[in-house]
Amino acid sequence: MNCNPQQFTRQELADFYERLILLWENGDLLNQRFNIRSNKAYRRLKAQYDFDLITHANLETTKAEFESFDFTLSSESKNVIHFHNAKSNILKSYFYHIRNVAGHADIKKVKFRNVNWYVFEHQFSNQIKLFGVFKAADFWKVHEALVRLRVET
User: Fold this and answer.
1) Exposed, middle or buried by CB within 10 Å (0-12, 13-18, 19+), for 117?
2) Rounded CA separation 81/94 (Å)
3) Which 3 state secondary structure label does DSSP give 34?
4) Which end of the chain has fewer CB atoms surrounding its CB within 10 Å, N or C?
5) Which residue range(s) make up the domain with 102?
6) Model's pTM, two decimal places?
């Protein structure tokens, strides 16, 4: 039995645990305020890494988008993550779901044209919660930048 079928490196496994799971579990993100609608840093980040975080108001819409999503990587593929807006805040919902993705090992690593991509597909209780594709190197840069978008109080 292979407990690492995706062949993640030790560093990747440590990053999933420390930067995705522990950051949420320790409350470093749960009790923070985030507002990306009025944040120029978020718009600059989106332009730099050409990504989309697409939220869905309910699980039915999330499921409908999931069923029509093409997970096939191509030269047209872009960084995109769809998720249910469970926390009524885009970034809190993202951090909550990405923690669960890591905790449940719902990440695959796929190499396409010498670029590693993460393919996310997280379901719980037969409900799709988060899915998408993201270049591995871009994912960590974007994730760390999103963590820094806390609203100063």
Assistant:
1) buried
2) 9
3) strand
4) N
5) 10-147
6) 0.86
